[in-house]
């Protein structure tokens, strides 16, 4: 007999299958691309591979959540060329999970996840309490869009602050605490920066820690953006 465990919803949750995850993420992706005005989304090999990787991850993540409750949960980092669908792909994935990383079965369960745009990271840590994104109070899953578009260093009352470095450091520290008293945070991001460039901008230590915090998906090819015909 299955026993209910108070506020641990994923204990008696049915894990998602790869096919189910793939179909949901792909449908959502196509829906979002169409919403942007593209009549016929073009799923090339890179996008197809990314969708499959996201589906495999969803299954792994779901299993981890069920078995480990608050364990180490690596996120997903989408690297790649400009305009190749990175943000849309992550947005599609984001819509399929809850803010604590639980797979949402069926369309009736709505996700409340949103992106923290990289150029709002500083504001989200040091900004006024009315600021829309409050990283400090953020949920278990943190989604940062377009890492590298922000100013890496911001002066705060004369003190240099490095928002991305702070976020990664804080997540990494929690990730390495084995007492699991605090919920672990899982980091998801998109970026046009190459891993080498990340090392140049944020330093070797951050680049190295990122390897432990997430799985990498790389999307190549040309940008989908075009002028269009008149
Ligand atoms: N498979 C696709 N087929 C056609 N258009 C697409 C596809 N994927 C994304 N697009 C469209 O291309 C544009 C760029 O997509 P998106 O913003 O997701 O890319 P990105 O890689 O995050 O770009 P950037 O590098 O500028 O952050 C959007 O208008 C999006 O709707
Ligand atoms: Mg983007």
Describe the SSE topology.
Layout: H1 18-35, H2 45-68, E1 75-80, H3 86-94, E2 116-117, H4 121-126, E3 141-147, E4 154-156, E5 159-161, H5 163-176, E6 186-191, H6 195-202, H7 204-213, E7 214-219
Helix pairs in contact: 1-2, 1-3, 5-7, 6-7
The structure holds adenosine-5'-triphosphate and magnesium ion.
Architecture overview:
This protein has seven helices and seven strands; from the N terminus they run ααβαβαβββαβααβ. It is α/β, with parallel strands linked by helices and 230 residues long. It has a single domain (9-219), classed as 3-Layer(aba) Sandwich (Rossmann fold), CATH 3.40.50.300. A hairpin with a 2-residue loop joins strand 4 and strand 5 (159-161). Helix 5 packs across helix 7 and helix 6 crosses helix 7 (204-213). The N and C termini lie far apart (64 Å). 32% of the residues are buried. The model is unreliable at 1-5 (pLDDT under 50). The protein binds adenosine-5'-triphosphate and magnesium ion (MG). Magnesium ion is lined by residues 86-87, 145-146, 190.
CATH topology name, in short, is: Rossmann fold
Using the 3D structure, state the CATH architecture. Answer: 3-Layer(aba) Sandwich
CATH superfamily descriptor: P-loop containing nucleotide triphosphate hydrolases
Tell me the overall shape: globular
């Amino acid at each position: 007999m299955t026993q209910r465990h108070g506020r641990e919803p994923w204990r008696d949750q049915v894990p998602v299958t790869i096919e189910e995850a793939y179909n949901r993420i792909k449908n959502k992706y196509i829906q979002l691309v169409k919403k942007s005005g593209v009549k016929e989304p073009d799923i090339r090999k890179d996008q197809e591979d990314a969708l499959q990787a996201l589906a495999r991850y969803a299954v792994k993540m779901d299993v981890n959540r069920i078995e480990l409750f608050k364990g180490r949960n690596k996120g997903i980092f989408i690297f790649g060329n400009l305009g190749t669908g990175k943000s849309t792909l992550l947005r599609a994935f984001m819509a399929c999970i809850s803010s604590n990383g639980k797979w949402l079965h069926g369309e009736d369960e709505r996700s409340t996840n949103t992106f923290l745009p990289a150029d709002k990271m500083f504001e989200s840590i040091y900004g006024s309490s009315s600021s829309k994104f409050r990283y400090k109070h953020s949920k278990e899953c943190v989604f940062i869009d377009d890492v590298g578009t922000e100013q890496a260093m911001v002066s705060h009352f004369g003190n240099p602050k490095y928002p991305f470095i702070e976020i990664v450091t804080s997540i990494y520290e929690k990730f390495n605490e084995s007492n699991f008293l605090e919920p672990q945070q899982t980091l998801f991001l998109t970026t046009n920066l190459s891993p080498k460039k990340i090392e140049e901008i944020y330093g070797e230590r951050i680049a190295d820690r990122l390897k432990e915090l997430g799985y990498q998906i790389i999307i190549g090819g040309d940008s989908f953006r075009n002028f269009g015909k008149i």
